[in-house]
Design a protein that fits this description.
By secondary structure, the chain is mainly alpha-helical. It has one domain. 71% of the residues lie in helices and 5% in strands.
């Protein structure tokens, strides 16, 4: 199975699961977290908005997650990463990126409209720290929220 087939999710389209590379997933999470951190340090709301848009595109397809695709298609070959892809639920990945995008968007909107600006930047910093926690440690609050909501709505 070649790299292109794995990125396109070789599991059937109607399946609830998708194959992703763990290293590429961590890379894209780290890139988003770094972009948010830079926007916080510079207090640049437009860089924050650009990052939110990039993260929001991921909700539609993994093909639109440019940092993930860059790592999966180019950096993995350059680094000679031979790890196998892992199976993840599509809905989990969509939920995680949706929650991160939504949290950052709320902070951006507060900043844009000039309401509670200091609180908004603090909220963005806390969200960014949670993004770094997910990228480096693998502990993701949004994934825990997904599991919690999944159990609640399953009943």
């Amino acid at each position: 199975m070649n790299t292109i087939d794995q990125i396109k999710c070789p599991i059937p389209n109607n399946s609830k699961h998708c194959l992703i590379y763990e290293s590429s997933f961590k890379f894209c999470r780290t890139i988003y977290a770094i972009l948010v951190l830079i926007s916080f340090l510079l207090h640049n709301q437009w860089l924050l908005l650009a990052t939110i848009i990039l993260m929001f595109l991921r909700l539609f397809s993994i093909k639109l997650d440019f940092p993930y695709q860059f790592h999966a298609l180019f950096l993995r070959k350059l680094l000679k990463d031979k790890s196998d892809p892992i199976s993840k639920e599509k809905s989990e990945l969509t939920f995680v990126f949706g929650v991160m995008s939504l949290f950052l968007l709320v902070g951006f909107l507060f900043i844009y409209f000039g309401k509670f600006v200091n609180f908004a930047w603090l909220f963005i910093l806390i969200t960014d720290l949670l993004m770094f926690l997910a990228a480096f440690v693998g502990f993701c609050i949004a994934t825990l929220m997904y599991i919690f909501f999944k159990k609640i709505f399953r009943r």
